[in-house]
Design brief:
The chain has about 575 residues and is α+β, with helices and mostly antiparallel strands. The chain folds into 3 domains: about 25-45 and about 145-230, Penicillin-binding protein 2a (Domain 2); about 50-140; about 230-280 and about 290-575, Beta-lactamase, CATH 3.40.710. Helix content is about 35%, strand content about 25%. Helix 12 (about 305-315) packs across helix 15 and helix 13 (about 350-355) crosses helix 19 (about 485-500).
Length: about 575
């Protein structure tokens, strides 16, 4: 019986034992793929890759005879010498060396990163050469247009993968750090950009050091490229007009939802971003340069919502195009009076004129008559209170606040009151939007009532240039109004730009015919009162191709602060083409 068992082990299970022995002596090294590029709509490279050089030790070639500590002391001694030659502070510690040799002995131990050409020359002249000293290359992100579209593109950082896909077959996997998307498109499309890692087999000795490289068994699959909808000249113009301010500008194609420009200010330069700068930017709570105001910033919209209220008033027959309201310069709600932009009033005016001059009493009076319930279908169809569906990491709070009865019950523990509707009618109170939402709402007015889902990536390309996926326009909602109603609204917005003493006359200098609505919303306490200023617009009219929303924090008014900026934006963009 004993002999029979021995024969089973030696003969029948021989193959299994050989495979087990092989697995114990073979280690895979994970091979990092090349990260995909990010390109603008005109194929301008926004994010690519460049080679940088690191100085490293191959610890397997630098072992000293005798105790393990001798090898550690030797590595520290050589590193101090190199630090002196390169005029850099020493970076290695005994703990770092022990951890590296324990976990990744076959991989290079990096001692100095991002060598300059001058430092490379110093290393090349070291005589005699230090055995085990090597210069290795790696790919890092490159930004051919430094500082452009920073929030949109997003940042990356180095991360060491766990190699779990190989863990079942091999007891130990050696992994090199790879770039991982941490924000923006780099994060949202990280899987597409990252590609798939490969691996190479090596045979190791009993101490874990390599002594034979085996055949590669899995080639890395490089990441895919992203072609964006962004026009780099429009993006550049948007960032230029926002410089020195806090705000955002979003431009979309009115008939598809494709995003042409998406700018947030203040901003920063990804090409010089390191850990120290990142911490400084994170600590800036006033400017919040890391925060993307265009997508995640929520603000009371002010009077830019008046066209949406006008739709509901017309569709619910609260007013007709001919009906007039006598504006006396203010409207009184209980003991509180709210003034019109024109101090002594506009006198009798119809709905087109109310949009043109942005008359508060007109919209507050008829808004209270309409009521919040009748306005709800229009607010929902405009996308207010819900995420846009943009292919970018939208924050949970980026839905904004849609005014509704439930909000008063939930937040204020009371019923929705007529005064709440009065304030909502002029875009204040329980009402916030993002600049992206505002641009899409403007596009819906321009294109005949369709609210599209916005998108930033129009095509994904394989590494060989073959298209893998193309984004088609997606309809989210339709505004519940007739073409006749939309024509009235658009007439009012065109008048807001072109009529004398209207609210957005500064846009007459934009270089193309536009329709617009300005907005100004007061926020903060009585002691710290400030204004959030808006303009939404579309053009060229009548066949509007583009819709734009611009928000500037702490401005004077939409007409005085934002309209001139948007006029400059269009001029810069048109000149660049």
């Amino acid at each position: 019986l004993l002999l029979l068992s021995l024969r089973q082990v030696q003969v029948l299970h021989r193959e299994e034992h050989l495979r087990a022995t092989l697995r114990q002596s073979v280690r895979p090294i994970r091979l990092t793929p090349v990260r995909g590029r990010i390109l603008a709509a005109d194929m301008t490279e926004l994010v690519g890759n460049r080679t940088c050089y690191d100085l490293c030790f191959h610890t397997t070639e630098m072992r000293r005879p005798g105790a393990f500590q001798k090898s550690i002391d030797y590595l520290l001694e050589q590193e101090r010498l190199l630090a002196y030659l390169l005029k850099r502070p020493p970076a290695l510690t005994e703990k770092t060396i022990r951890r590296h040799i324990s976990h990744n002995p076959v991989l290079p131990l990096v001692i100095f990163r991002n060598l300059t050409p001058a430092e490379l020359a110093v290393v090349a002249e070291i005589t005699p050469p230090i055995p085990g000293l090597d210069v290795t290359s790696r790919l890092v992100r490159q930004y051919p247009l430094p500082g452009l579209a920073t929030h949109l593109l997003g940042r990356t950082s180095w991360s060491r993968p766990d190699g779990e896909d190989l863990a079942e077959e091999y007891p130990r996997i050696y992994t090199s750090p790879q770039l991982v998307g941490r924000s923006g498109l780099e994060s949202y499309y990280d899987q597409e950009l990252s590609g798939r890692a490969g691996s190479r087999l090596i045979r190791v000795d009993v101490m874990g050091y390599d002594h034979e490289i085996l055949t590669d068994f899995d080639t890395p699959h490089n990441g895919n490229d992203l072609i964006l909808t962004i026009d780099p000249q429009a993006q550049k113009a948007a960032e230029s007009v926002l410089q020195g301010r806090q705000g955002a500008l979003v431009a979309v194609r009115a008939k598809t939802g494709a995003v042409i420009a998406l700018a947030s200010a203040p901003t920063f330069d990804l090409s010089v971003l390191d850990q120290r700068l990142y911490q400084q930017l994170s600590a800036d709570q006033a400017g919040r340069p890391l925060f993307n105001r265009a997508v995640n910033g929520t603000y009371p919209p002010g009077s830019i919502v008046k066209p949406l209220l006008a739709m509901a008033l017309l569709e619910n027959e609260i007013v007709t195009e001919e009906d007039e309201y006598d504006c006396r310069g203010k409207i009184t709600l209980g003991t509180h009076s709210i003034h019109c932009a024109k101090r002594y009033g506009h006198g009798p005016l119809n709905i087109v004129e109310a949009i043109k001059f942005s008359c508060n009493p007109f919209f507050m009076n008829y808004g209270m008559e309409l009521g919040i319930d009748a306005w709800q279908p229009f607010l929902k169809a405009a996308g207010i209170g819900e995420k846009t569906g943009l292919d970018w990491p939208e924050a949970r709070a980026s839905t904004g606040i849609r005014p509704e009865r439930d909000f008063a019950t939930r937040k204020w523990k009371r019923k929705w009151l007529p005064v709440d509707m009065a304030y909502a009618s002029i875009g204040q109170g329980a009402f916030t939007m993002t600049p992206l939402q505002a641009a899409l709402y403007a596009a819906a007015i321009a294109n005949g009532g369709i609210l599209y889902q916005p998108f930033l990536v129009q095509t994904i390309l394989a590494p060989d240039g073959k298209p893998l996926r193309h984004t088609s326009p997606t309809i989210r909602h339709r505004l519940p109004c007739s073409q006749e109603t939309l024509d009235i609204i658009r007439h009012g917005m065109e008048e807001a730009v072109n009529a004398p003493q209207a609210s957005a006359t500064a846009l007459q200098d934009a270089g193309l015919p536009l329709a617009a609505k300005t907005g100004t919303a007061e926020v903060g306490s009585q002691e710290n009162r400030r204004k959030q200023t808006w303009v939404i617009c579309y053009g060229p009219v009548p066949e509007a191709e583009y819709a734009v929303a611009c928000l500037v924090e702490n401005g004077e008014s939409g007409g005085k602060t934002v309209a001139p900026l948007l006029s400059q934006f269009f001029r810069l963009w048109l000149e660049s083409h």
